[in-house]
């Protein structure tokens, strides 16, 4: 299991514990935890409605893919540590990370 913190659109923080042996994406965990993540494209990196900002732990995640960057660059606002939750796999590298929801909230 991996534990990380999610900051919602209102600034509230909550720790989330997720299995790191099932190949799930961060987007899938956020949706299962009932966060308002639209994920319109279903995790194909085509819509950027699962936009997150990594506040802590970004160096462990590595670089975003070109496909991911293409979507992020089309957003009205994105940050140096912006990522698409659908492209981040749940793994031990997320341990202790803090992420902030940035995508549309319904």
TrEMBL record:
Cofactor: [2Fe-2S] cluster
Record Pfam families: Fer2 (PF00111)
InterPro entries: 2Fe-2S_ferredoxin-like_sf, 2Fe-2S_ferredoxin-type, Adrenodoxin-like, Beta-grasp_dom_sf
Keywords: 2Fe-2S, Iron, Iron-sulfur, Metal-binding
Gene3D superfamilies: 3.10.20.30
Domain 2Fe-2S ferredoxin-type: 1-105
Residue ranges the record marks as coiled coil: none
Assigned protein family: Belongs to the adrenodoxin/putidaredoxin family.
Protein name, entry field: 2Fe-2S iron-sulfur cluster-binding protein
Organism: Belliella calami
